[in-house]
Amino acid sequence: MRIEDIDPPREARGAADEILRCLETHGFCWTGAVRWQSQRNAAHASAVRTLLDAGLAFPCDCSRRQIRAVARLGPAGPVYPGSCRRKAPGEVDLHDAAIRAAVAPCLISFNDRLQGEQCCRLDRDLGEFIIRRRDGLIAYVLATTLDDHAQGITEVVRGADLLAMTPAQIWLQRLLGLAEPAYLHVPVVRNAAGEKLSKQTGARPLVTSAAGENLCRALACLGQAPPDKLAQEAPETIWRWAADHWNPARAGRETGNMPHIKV
Known about the structure:
Elements: E1 2-3, H1 15-25, E2 35-36, H2 41-53, E3 57-60, H3 64-70, E4 72-74, E5 77-79, E6 98-101, E7 107-112, E8 116-121, H4 122-126, E9 130-132, H5 140-150, E10 155-159, H6 166-176, E11 182-186, H7 211-221, H8 235-245
Parallel strand pairs: 1-2, 10-11
Antiparallel strand pairs: 3-6, 4-5, 6-9, 7-8
Helix pairs in contact: 5-6
């Protein structure tokens, strides 16, 4: 179990403890002590330094407004136009700038176990992406890449909203000589307005007293069609049913017509 607590400005007090309680109530279990991503800040900073020293990253003091004014729109948002890549060493203050990974004009291809074959032309589709923010905080894309490797993660299952940034993680794995895990991205659940359920879109927290119903609704949204009576069972029984009947091919690909739950 890893708590990704590397963005203090966005963290609500007590949220991590509530997440752990919610997971336990829903029958999730893990081995070993809980890992806190913030405790690996030194390792994250070391990787940034390694990439900078090797000329594989560079500082960028462009504002978001400046980038949006000239950037093309790619699968993961505005594609950075490379403005600071061409600046001379020392022209940008490292301590008052974001750090971006340099990318090559190459194709990153991988086979997602649900979404199928994926191909990204890094320079065209993604551009040089941020690995350390201007405020000094490490970006998710780098921290998660490093920590997955440190924990020996071989299979990553997560929401398809992160699919577009997977080529960036694979690029970092290659730059840093890290193993590449297998990926499977499931469609995200959206509200009636088509927005991904999240605290940013006002989604309510799970009612932990309805763990069985919550698990069965999740299985239904993933196309697994659990029987109605299963929702009355204990989480352990639901997990056994899910393991025996799991068929990832039924979960569906990331499209505009995904399961919706009204909130």
